[in-house]
Amino acid sequence: MELGRIEGTVVSTAKVDRLKGYKLLLVNLINPDMKATSNYVVAVDTVGAGKGEVVIVVRGSSARQAKTLQHVPTDTSIVAIVDSIELKGKIVFDKAAGE
Amino acid sequence: MELGRIEGTVVSTAKVDRLKGYKLLLVNLINPDMKATSNYVVAVDTVGAGKGEVVIVVRGSSARQAKTLQHVPTDTSIVAIVDSIELKGKIVFDKAAGE
Amino acid sequence: MELGRIEGTVVSTAKVDRLKGYKLLLVNLINPDMKATSNYVVAVDTVGAGKGEVVIVVRGSSARQAKTLQHVPTDTSIVAIVDSIELKGKIVFDKAAGE
Amino acid sequence: MELGRIEGTVVSTAKVDRLKGYKLLLVNLINPDMKATSNYVVAVDTVGAGKGEVVIVVRGSSARQAKTLQHVPTDTSIVAIVDSIELKGKIVFDKAAGE
Amino acid sequence: MELGRIEGTVVSTAKVDRLKGYKLLLVNLINPDMKATSNYVVAVDTVGAGKGEVVIVVRGSSARQAKTLQHVPTDTSIVAIVDSIELKGKIVFDKAAGE
What's the whole-model pTM score? Predict the structure, then answer.
């Protein structure tokens, strides 16, 4: 999985039936030191993630393993909102502390 | 998923039976700020997308989850036409406004 | 899917049983403007493609969806021979015209 | 599969049900000469790997083939702790020797 | 699929049950002109490949399609030992000739 930060939304009315009702979020992939990369993905949200939150993104067929997504044509899903990240002994992200 | 813009078509008569009847579009992958990347993919269209439209592209086995594509040998499908994109609080794309 | 040009063959006698009988072709991935990239893949041919032909390559589990390949351990298959490519309103490739 | 070194942990309470109970580790992908790359992945641990250990990481649908992970939405799993690595006739890593 | 050369082995005792009994080889991915790239993968051997041999590597779920690997958590398998490679009309690799 990869770490990302929610930075926007994509709105679409003309879409495949099986995608209807799902919120599509723009996620900027980030490094563990919290620095943004230049890569963005469009992800289906499964955990009620909001703008600016740090999340875990799952790709490929595994993106359909969140229970309700079995036949949804998504290859990228948000499966967790991150509380904290520890890297090499340091807390590099702590949601409760406002980072 | 990824954002892309439809820039062309690929015509083929000698192809696998299961691909027959599907339109193959050339999609230029774009960044959320609407800038084109140098990457192109050939995608099966499932939503009637037209030239110049901004779309969402799905890859891998999920590309076969749009209902009619279950056994079609495609790894890239267009599953949505984008109406608008919001990035960091700004509307960066609005189809109705002619962008 | 991706565009490629057939540039060679790979011969192997010691291979997994399920791969036996399939022709393995060296495909140079190309951009839609017909320029070669530095990337090559080894692909199973399903459409009788020949040297120099421009083809469509499918990756991943979808490479096994061409009917006869269901349990073949291939992650890259040639599923179509390209007749013509139109990019931004121009015909950039036309097989009949000798390009 | 790829080689990596465990460098941290990711904590999340708001996550997909099927991910609950699994430890999420930050893995820095490394080259066979043991040099760190700039790439990190978030992986589900299946073998009790600890900080600093060199492990083997599996991606994609295969990441769910470790027995207990069949319906877990993970695309990256740690499936082995490395004892030693031999590259071009030299032992480049030996856990018992403290490397 | 991709071409590679076997350059080493990875030994692990603490691994997922389903991986037990399989030999894990370090494969250096190579270009069709036989030049090494900087990329290495850890692959399950299914054809008895030895040090220095040029092989074909399969990725993703297809890596489990070699008959005995159906539920093995591998995303990279060696499925063929290469005898010869022809690129643009020239034999660029011939195992029998000592290359």
Answer: 0.94
Hey, are the CB atoms on D85 and E18 less than 8 Å from each other?
A: no
Rounded-to-integer distance, Cα C29 and Cα C34, Å: 9
Give φ, ψ of E80 to 5 degrees: -160, 145
The partner residues of A3 in beta bridges, in order of sequence, read: A56
Per-residue confidence (pLDDT) for residue C99, from 0 to 100: 55
Intervals of chain E under pLDDT 50: none
Q: Where are the alpha helices (H) located in C23-89, listed in sequence order?
A: none
The single-letter DSSP state of residue D15 is: B
Q: What HEC string does A37-86 produce?
A: EEEEEEEEECCCCCCCCEEEEEEHHHHHCCHHHCCCCCCEEEEEECCEEE
The whole-angstrom separation of Cα C62 and Cα C70 is: 9
CATH architecture of E2-97: Beta Barrel (2.40)
Interface test with D, best of E6, E13, E16 (most D CBs within 10 A): E16
Whether complex ipTM tops 0.90 = yes
Chain A contact for D40 (CB, 8 A cutoff): yes
What percent of chain B has pLDDT above 70? 99
Which among E1, E65, E66 has CB closest to C76? E1
Domain boundaries, chain E: 2-97
> How far is the alpha carbon of E28 from chain D, nearest alpha carbon, in Å?
10
Cα C67 versus chain centre, distance = 16
